[in-house]
Amino acid sequence: MAADIQPRLCKLSKKEGESFGFYLRIEKNIEGHLIRSVLTGGPADAVGLRDGDRVIRVNTVFVDGEEHQKVVDLIKKSGNYVTLLVLDDTTYTHAKKQGINLSQVNTPNQTPIQPVVNGFSGKTPRPKLCYLVKQASSFGFSLKTVEGAPGLFMTEIAPAGAAFNAGVEPNDRIIELNGENVENISHQQLVTKMKASGNNIMLLLIDETSDKYFKSKMIKVVASMASVKGLPLQPRIAQLTKGPQGYGFYLRVEQQRQGHLIREIDQNSPAEKSGLLDGDLLIAVNGDVVDHLEHESLVDKIKKCGNQVTFLVVDSTTNELYKQAGISPICYWKEVYELDQPVEVEESQENQRSTESPQHGPRMCHLTKGPEGYGFILNAIKGVQGQFIKQVIKGSTAEEACLQVNDILIEVNGINVERDTHEELIEKIKTSGDKLSLLVIRKEEYDHYKETNNPTSANASREPTPEPVTPPENIEEESTPEEPETQEPVADSPTLARREQVKSPSSSSAEEDTDADTQL
User: Fold this and answer.
1) Is 460 a residue whose pLDDT tops 60?
2) Residue 340 has what pLDDT?
3) Which of 27, 163, 170, 290 sits at a 20 to 30 Å CA gap from 419?
4) In the chain, what are the domains?
């Protein structure tokens, strides 16, 4: 399958008048656009291009099967910077023999390439945070101004330099430096601030397409909107299942440090097995930020989680990095666990919210299983209630039944499954035979119902959707609900997990008036 193929994303940068340091060729009896004669020490060599690699995308354009000259022109028109998505010789040859559609191959982080609609990608654009550490006394970029455009822009990105390695792109506009907005300062003022920052800086940047999007919506760009996946250090998500002796750590408040600290982790305890480290700062419990809670309130919150709990933690170095960016580590949780929801709600939409029920409500979808399944993938977040549609395969019975990505699943064949365990939901789907009826609701509407304490099932429109006449033929194996795969910390396929309320953590105690110390 296309999802199993691991391409390489190579970002090349060259100086004016120089080459990228490779030849692009087509050869008799060999498929694809081949990388040949890679110049040792050149831009292509520096980013890992190798002899025999096949180019399948130039920037965002799929080129496998295109005329050779068209691909050459695309690279030339890119100027001094170009991004190539490539496959090695063995992988490319195998994929061709298997008849895999290479246009569906994702980038290395498995983010599907988004279609462009009205000039913007299908997913809401994001600014980005880039952490630069000097190399040879240089950050590896220059600043420029653009006539008629306010602000300062990145240019002359040195190949394999600090800026290049941090993900900086030519023409990115600078919004913040070390958490401070610098959109309205002069070139010299910004240079002075950068010099005063020492050997590292944190930049909030935005590319031209994203900049146009936010300006068209009159939305102010801030660091909390940015993707944090490019930062060199990340918070950690630890999932704990309570053992006979509890979770195996102490939760402490100390005079020397702010926040709630993980201390004295027992050997072979659930805490140690989950990856918790002594001195970790606890940021969130099951997605809820806890830094504002008193010690006893936090202990009580963990008790109420029952036998399982999910922590978001950071070590001191990572915490300082996020402070430099001016954001909370919870931004990592939101990006990883909340499926890249739009970074900002438009003001007009916000003003239209009311306490009344949503206009659409739950809806019924009837599916007929094809040779390779129903054509959808379910996802669940451990420790968070709710199971939702992660992917709908194009042309499948799921698509024909109008199932949509991020739909929350309420009922399976008339039975409520909002609180079902991983195994219970699988069993319901397995025993459905070739027919499956799903009651679903859009995520934003589901959240609304929960906030207003309105039941979801009672609001459903029971009008059946048309059932497909014939089952789909080319559905990826991953979509079948009969052979679910469990991933940590997220479970894909129709096998979901929820936490069970069993026993509470042990009670809290305080060592001193100034410190709080609780074993968990």
Assistant:
1) no
2) 41
3) 290
4) 2-113 (2.30.42.10), 128-225 (2.30.42.10), 236-337 (2.30.42.10), 363-484 (2.30.42.10)
